[in-house]
Every structure is written in C-alpha cells, then in structure tokens.
Description:
Elements: H1 14-17, H2 21-25, E1 45-52, E2 58-59, E3 65-72, E4 78-83, H3 89-97, E5 101-111, E6 119-123, E7 128-132, H4 150-154, E8 161-180, E9 183-194, E10 197-204, E11 216-227, E12 230-243, E13 261-278, E14 295-297, E15 304-306, E16 311-322, E17 327-332, H5 334-343, H6 353-361, E18 366-371, E19 375-381, H7 389-400, H8 406-422
Parallel strand pairs: 4-6, 10-12, 17-19
Antiparallel strand pairs: 1-3, 1-5, 2-3, 3-4, 5-6, 5-7, 8-9, 8-11, 9-10, 11-12, 13-16, 13-18, 14-15, 16-17, 18-19
Amino acid sequence: MSSDIHQLDYDHAPSFFSRTDDQRLQTNRPIIMASPAKKTKVEEETVVGHVHAVSPVKTSRQNVRYFEATLQTGREEFNRVVCFALEKRSEFIQASDNSQAVRLSRARKSISFGNPGGYDVLLSSASSVGVLDDLDFPRRTPPDVDQLTVAQVLALGPMQRVGTMELRVVQATGNRVVPVRGTPVELKVFEVCDATGQTGLTVWDRVILSVQEGRSYRFTTLTTRKEGDRTVVTTTPSTQVTTCAEVGRPTVLRPASAGGEEVVCGAVVGVKIVAKPRCPRCHAGQENLVARCSTHRCERCGLLQRTMAYIITYSGMVIVLSQKGEERSMALTNSAVFAYVRDNFLSSCGHDGAALEESVMALEEVEVTVSRDGSVVRFGKFAPAGPSVEQDGAKCADAAGGSTTEDEVLDGLDEVLAKEMTD
C-alpha cells in the first residue's frame, strides 16, 4: 500500500544527496522538499437489501480477517458483501436467519470481478448495519450467481475471481515444484472441460490430493490467468473441492500433450523429507509446533487451534542408484510423500520427517515415477513384474482338467489369495 507521504528517493540519487551544502548550491537542480499528498476522497454510500449466505470468518494471505455474504439489492440483483469488521457478523447472521432486510451505511462499492455487471459492497468498522421493516421487492433465494461455465471463463481476462465451476478432469499434463516466498510449493496442471468447452486448471499444494483424472468436481474460489491466448483457471488458498454429478463434455476435445514421465527403479542412496505443519486458516508454516501439545497458536495469524487441525505438507529429495548404474537426484513433492504415508499406513509418524526417511531407506529397491522437470509424482517399494492373480487362477483351473465353471475359477483364485496371505 502506498504511503500518504511522498518521500524522496535517496537510493536513486546518492551523488546529489552526498554532496556538501556548498556543492549543492552550485548545481542548477532544485532541492525538492517532501510534502503531504492529498488524500483521494472515497465516496461512501448506503446500500439496502436482503442478506443471504453469511460465510465463516476467513483470513487473507496478508493476515486480514473478514467474512462475506450475499446481498439481494433488487428483485433479480445479487451482490457480494465483504466485511472487515468481524463484530458485525452476528448482525448479518441474525438478519439472514430472521429474513430481515438491512441498511448498510457508510459502505463502499467496488468493481466485482466474479459477477460481471455487478459490484462488491465493502464494509469497515466505520460502517453500520441497520434493520429495515420492508423493501419494495420480495426476498428470494439467490441463484448461484458466481457459478460460471468454461465458455464464460474463456471470455474473461486474467486475474478475475471465479466463484464456482463444475468441471470434468480430463488429463494431467504437468507436475512441478516452484518456489513461493522462499518455500517450495507443488503444482499440477490438468485439462478440464464441461459441456460448453475446454480449458486448463492449475491445482496448487494441498488441493492436488483431492483431484483425480476422469472424475467431476465442484471447485469454489478460483482465479483466472492467461496462457497464451487462452484463459485458464487456477486454485487459490481459499479453494474448496467437492465431488459432484458427472459433468458433460464438449463435442470435440482438444488433444493435450502430457508432460513426459519416467520410471526409475533402484536402491535408495539418500533421502531427505521435511514435514512442515501449516495453519489451516492462513496456510503459514509453523516452526515451533509441538505435536504432543493439544493446542498451538498460529505463528502468523495468532489463532489458537487444536494441534491436530494443522495440515502437514511435505518436501525434500531422494537420490536413487538406478538399475543402469546412474545416480538420480529427484525432488519429493507433497502429494508423492502423502500418498506414500497413506499407502504404507504410516500416519502415526506422518509428522516426523526423520522417521519417514528411515522408512524409505529400509526399502531394498524403490520404483519412482518422475516428471520431466525432476519432480517425483509417486514412489514406493519396487515390485518386479510377475504372473497376475488371474493367470494363477487360470492355472489352477487348467490343473483340474477339462472345462471349468465360473465358481471353480473363483475357488482357484481364492486358493491363490490364501497362499499369498500365508506366505
């Protein structure tokens, strides 16, 4: 945020400001004194309407706490309210629960990036909330004004908010780790679609674990960006993902080139796993969380929460001596380590990076799937290819001689499975 005072830029004029007074007087350049800038007058307005859908308290990346609501300002008009005065949330909830109309005084209107043609109502501690007896339009449940189709998103510019989209995940096209404020963060790129069109979706960090190819999801709080001449969407720290009914697809799907993946098999030479707890509210990493304590106060937003509510994210690297005799160093991603912890029932030590390192080093050989940029997509114990259970079951049936019924084949499979469990 810019200061209200225009200050002289000493760093960009060192020779001038290092001169003596006599030398300075010999120059033709005037001495510019700092002076207060005029503050831009912000017009405040009064807005009336019916309150719907009051959100929980949220925390922005800048550690600003706020809540949202939907305000019906006309028979068919709905606009978003963003309130930075948390003490007013109880008034909003009461008005919504009692179907009371409200008057919002000393409010500001801002351009809405998620509702073209609409506006956002911004409230501060100086704003006030009053109850009205009636309005000249009836209260009605708002439609999901923030839900957009792919065709509508493709018509938007970059950096615009998208409230909700229902998408079918077609194909993963890339996976990599990038530094964000000095912290390695994983992202995964998908091609997604609905019946109106196709675009790209970049999924960040924790959301990656919620998305699988071939399934349909409802995504909330996305934002747009430009990828060449195409508008694509990306998740944000506030994005929520839930499964939904199967989403349709356009008549023609554009083929997308998947990022090349390679499988590396061999012995683990070295491994480093960092398990970092993050606040579920502001997503800040925690340096001093003690797992055995029942609560922990976030080191950024200051909110006291139960320790088990903090989210563990992983990073690190693994070095493998491949079967070809080559030493490969690969970056471990959060999703890969999370899947390893889940699939090997290691959740009891999931917060302990050193214990996970010992677990990986104990594997005789590993199989690592790595993306083109050297990021690990998944890894686990190397399992040599062998005859499948179905093939073994068929052998049991053949050993019995002659044709067999389906029940006899299933009995053969049961014997194979029982033998595997006792070995």
